[in-house]
Amino acid sequence: MSTTAVTWLMNKLIFDTTKMCYISTFTLNSEWHMLCSFSNRIPNEKDYIEIHRTFPSKINSFSGKLEQKSTSSPNGKIIWQQEFSLHFELGCKSKKIILENNKITEHSPLIGYVTISDDSGKSTLEDNDESDIQLKSLNELANDLTRLLDPKYTSLADVHLRCGSDIIPAHKSILSVRSPVFLDMFSSTNAETQTNEVIITDIDVPVFRILLAYIYTGKIENLTVPLAGDLLFAADKYKLTGLKITCFKYLKINISMENALEILTFGDLHEPDLKVFAMEFICQNCEEFAALETMEMWKILKKEKSSLAIEVLTSLVKTKRK
């Protein structure tokens, strides 16, 4: 199984006279290629991404996530985002991912990741059917548990989480099973146990609600780099290893020179491996120090984390000497 980060520039379009639409291509490797069709130039047609493989002699799974962000928005607002999972049987050369809306634009890149695995060892269709059934069952379970956070089910709650001005009914058993911090909290005779109320003081309400959804369902959606950084802090606090790994992988896939310093600070605070990864990325992609000086994040780093800024400079000098 291999995972490849995707940064797909849309600035080189070709007009397909057969399909009467513009297309853009992206090569993952010598076997796998992706083609994006701008069908939204044709009324009532949806955009799609077509996956092609050169050697259809294997059974493969092709999954991942792609999104497109606005270049005009200062925070990089997500235009659209879609996850996908495709199964390539023997002899199958191509498949389509139909996009759920027509907002794709050639003015900003598609970014995300693709995971390709060789499923040739799964010799029967029943194996794949069983896997689909299990996935559907897990999704149903996650959806059912999400309902426990619905105000309609307040009567089933046995603890209240006070975050900012919000009071969120929750369930000690679920919180305790998922987080050892909550388990210790509810197992001892402290104020939280006696009052059945937990006060959250260092996590913003939107971030805490996303954290809570992950605790109940194991799912995390609509991640951004700043949100992943906030969730890294929250995952550290409540010892949620799975969430920490998810945020770590997301930040690695979505790192760029525009956000590398920000990701470096997340790693410095919460994840040493992420710090090393971001430092190496900066050293490999920063051509000269002058490029750093123009970044607002570099000014903040020098002012608020001068020791980390010195580490960056030292690493850059060592890299250039090599």
UniProtKB/TrEMBL annotation:
Domain BTB: start-end pairs: 157-224
Any Pfam family matching the protein: BTB
Coiled-coil intervals, chain numbering: none
Residues annotated as signal peptide: none
Domain of life: Eukaryota
Protein name, UniProt field: TD and POZ domain-containing protein 3
Record organism: Trichonephila inaurata madagascariensis
Protein encoded by which gene: Tdpoz3
